[in-house]
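Structure (tokenized):
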């Protein structure tokens, strides 16, 4: 028995070692819990609270016509994940940070095994050195993916593996391949990445059918089946888009893309070298030079690495497409076709991390085969890259830049003290936040007039604009930000710009906040929660009530009451 276990360990040693390292990468979530530092942008400031609000709303099973009163006097139910979202169920069953930890664990291990299977079965199937495939898969799995995306980006290699298996094996495809394929949609986002993935698979199937006269039925079932699941999962979005004529999304006023050719070129270079904040591949210091070097080494040795060159060529193409999507030359077309404004076709760049690490694996194989001492060199390069990305785990990365922990960000005890001071049922009044994200107040049970959401009524965007019009007039940047996008319906300050994290150690104050408190009162606004003192609060009809702070919270909250409320 012990011998068989030993043999098992020897056979799978690189996979087991990778899983151990990945467990160490995830360890802070399990040991520190809510005291873990995690990403704020598109995470603490949004998705986590959306799931929590939905789980606690009593409207989890409600139809798309329902509204949640906690946000903007009635946030449409359709603005939040549907009942078919698996991550939403984690927040129903578990505490928010526990749900977050489990989703992170799923994301990392799915990324590892998906990349490993794709490499070993389809990219370098004849390669026998397990450390290389396991190492590249481990490096990919530890990338700083957008945390709330789960399998949206991290699961792409797994999806490619599953579809290629079905295409190859046809009717002989094992049941667990089909099961995994139909689970992926419940843990990923159709609009952000898988709409492109399924489009690629569809073209692939069509070309094969026309070119080889082969109607691959299992492959077609896989494409259509996954698409149907995504449509079911996103039924609320489809309802509001095609059936509910009473709802007009604020996205109808989206007007993204005003860059000149110089701006487009700068964005292209930045994306190619550094990536996008949601899909960082951490590739510019090791991965990119290794790929370039491997191409030249192979050519010098008389071998043309076709697969590597073709895959590598996709990275600048995707970056160029991403950059050109924001070119001002698109404006006439975008202005005449609503879909081009409301849907971001540039997001196909979310394929970048997968492509970079497929190229990295192919490049390391060339180095091992074509360079004297290549095994050692490739091992060292791969180890260095794994160390680079390991250091970017959320606890390490965000503690270093000193952003709040999960518990500090939401500061439950501090906001409970504020609620007790006000002494009214939170549903009986509305608040806005200044110099801080409104999701903090939302997380703590306040009913907010400000928000950050992917979609909400256009009419409300216009009503809220009346409150902040004075500040928007003082800042062309903020005015353009709100009027051409508006996803963040925030109480902006031209003095602060797009900064929303000010701790109690900050000595900053807001000298002159130009907000319309009459418009605020008309929407039901009674209190202003500010992370910074508002010097002219009396002039704009605000009465300072109290300042709150404690030893456990990074915030110093100034509570103001609207005098004419």
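Design, position by position:
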């Amino acid at each position: 028995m012990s011998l068989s276990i030993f043999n098992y360990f020897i056979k799978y040693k690189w996979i087991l070692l990778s899983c151990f390292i990945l467990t160490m990468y995830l360890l802070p979530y399990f040991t520190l819990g809510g005291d873990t530092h995690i990403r704020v942008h598109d995470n603490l400031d949004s998705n986590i609270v959306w799931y929590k609000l939905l789980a606690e709303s009593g409207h989890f099973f409600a139809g798309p016509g329902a509204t949640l009163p906690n946000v903007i006097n009635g946030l449409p139910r359709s603005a939040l994940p549907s009942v078919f979202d698996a991550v939403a169920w984690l927040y129903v069953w578990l505490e928010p940070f526990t749900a977050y930890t489990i989703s992170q664990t799923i994301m990392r291990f799915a990324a590892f095994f998906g990349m490993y299977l794709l490499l070993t079965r389809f990219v370098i199937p004849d390669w026998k050195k397990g450390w290389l495939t396991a190492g590249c898969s481990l490096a990919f799995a530890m990338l700083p993916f957008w945390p709330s995306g789960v399998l949206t980006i991290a699961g792409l290699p797994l999806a490619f593996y599953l579809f290629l298996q079905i295409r190859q094996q046809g009717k002989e495809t094992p049941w667990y391949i089909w099961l995994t394929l139909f689970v992926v949609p419940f843990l990923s986002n159709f609009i952000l990445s898988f709409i492109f993935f399924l489009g690629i698979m569809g073209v692939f199937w069509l070309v094969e059918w026309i070119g080889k006269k082969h109607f691959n039925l299992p492959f077609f079932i896989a494409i259509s089946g996954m698409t149907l699941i995504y449509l079911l999962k996103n039924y609320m979005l489809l309802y509001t888009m095609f059936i509910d004529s009473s709802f007009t999304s604020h996205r109808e006023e989206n007007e993204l893309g005003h860059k000149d050719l110089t701006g487009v070129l700068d964005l292209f270079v930045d994306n190619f070298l550094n990536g996008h904040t949601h899909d960082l591949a951490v590739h510019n210091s090791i991965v990119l030079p290794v790929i370039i070097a491997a191409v030249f080494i192979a050519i010098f040795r008389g071998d043309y690495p076709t697969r590597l060159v073709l895959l590598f060529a996709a990275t600048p193409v995707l970056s160029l497409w991403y950059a050109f999507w924001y070119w001002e030359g698109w404006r006439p077309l975008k202005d005449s076709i609503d879909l081009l404004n409301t849907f971001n076709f540039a997001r196909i760049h979310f394929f970048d991390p997968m492509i970079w690490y497929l190229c990295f694996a192919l490049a390391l194989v060339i180095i091992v085969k074509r360079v004297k001492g290549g095994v050692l060199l490739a091992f060292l390069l791969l180890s260095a890259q794994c160390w680079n990305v390991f250091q970017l785990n959320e606890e390490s990365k965000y503690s270093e830049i000193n952003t709040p922990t999960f518990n500090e960000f939401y500061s439950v005890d501090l906001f409970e003290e504020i609620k007790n001071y006000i002494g009214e049922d939170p549903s009986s009044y509305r608040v806005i936040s200044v110099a801080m994200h409104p999701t903090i107040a939302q997380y703590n049970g306040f009913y907010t007039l400000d928000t950050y959401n992917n979609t909400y009524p256009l009419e409300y965007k216009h009503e809220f604009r009346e409150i902040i019009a004075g500040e928007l007039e003082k800042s062309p940047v903020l005015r353009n930000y709100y009027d051409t996008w508006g996803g963040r319906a925030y109480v902006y300050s031209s003095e602060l710009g797009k900064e929303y994290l000010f701790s109690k150690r900050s000595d900053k104050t807001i000298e002159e906040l130009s907000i319309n408190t009459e418009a605020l009162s008309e929407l039901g606004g009674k209190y202003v929660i500010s992370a910074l003192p508002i010097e002219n609060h009396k002039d704009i009809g605000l009465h300072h009530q109290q300042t709150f702070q404690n030893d456990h919270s990074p915030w110093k909250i100034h509570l103001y009451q609207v005098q004419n409320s």
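Reviewer-requested clarification: Strands lie at 67-68, 75-76, 430-434, 451-452, 488-489, 525-530, 542-548, 557-562. The mean pLDDT is 95.
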